[in-house]
């Protein structure tokens, strides 16, 4: 299941906590990744993966005076942390 730049990112996901001792990777655009957990029913349910903070399908939820209205550059970095279901 391990992949970099994989076209498959679970569409229903929640933010997860990075376990102690796990190094957070940097993505293609140089940002630290966020750890997410798949909530899609099926083989990947509950598996965790790193994805770019600037992933193209996760636009910012809000805009304000400090945050520009233009989205960040798009990045498709993705790496599975869990390689098996527990």
UniProtKB/TrEMBL annotation:
Domain spans labelled GRF-type? 27-84
User: What highest taxon heads this organism's lineage?
Assistant: Eukaryota
The record's GO molecular-function terms, alphabetically, read: zinc ion binding
InterPro entries assigned to the protein according to its UniProt record, in alphabetical order: Znf_GRF (IPR010666)
Q: Which UniProt keywords apply?
A: Metal-binding, Zinc, Zinc-finger
What is this protein identified as?
A: Arginine-glutamic acid dipeptide repeats protein-like
- Organism name: Panicum miliaceum (Proso millet)
